[in-house]
Amino acid sequence: MPPVVSKYSPDEYERKSYYNGITGGGDHPELVYRSDFLTTPFPKPVGRYAHIPVKSLRGVFDTPLNSVWDTVGPEIRELLKAWKICWSSINLARFFTHGPPGEKGSLGPVVIWIGVIPDSTSSDTAHHVSQEILALLLKNGVEDTVVEWCEAVVVRLLDRLSPPA
User: Fold this and answer.
1) What is the C-alpha to C-alpha distance for residues 25 and 96, in angstroms, rounded to an integer?
2) CA geometry: angle 115, 142, 132, nearest 5 deg
3) How confident is the model at residue 3 (pLDDT cuts 50, 70, 90)?
């Protein structure tokens, strides 16, 4: 019997290419879930000269979330703990999606970007936790924010620089 696919899971193409461009060498994280999947479809390339979207990571400045982050950030961390999420990072980000040659790109919304250990969190769980995070944000006067989950393992730079034992 084939595995059941969640209605919240991105398809394989979106999962693998959603963060295309944000790291060098094509080693970008894989998408687990995003809270705006119903309102913002991910474009699939079509045609002979199809363009795969390329993103760049941007900072988050002067938004309503910045003024309450010291309050909601720890509350989000506690939500993740309560759900027993194996998270590796919680960040604020904005993504700029570059347009095809000759076209302008676009800056996306503020994102609460949650990194989880690979294969540790289902799209269903990410969806349910995201709804709680979005409610928390609304309670604190923050709208128009997206919650995105990706698979991510944090590696300390010192670990990479240390010679093997």
Assistant:
1) 18
2) 55
3) low
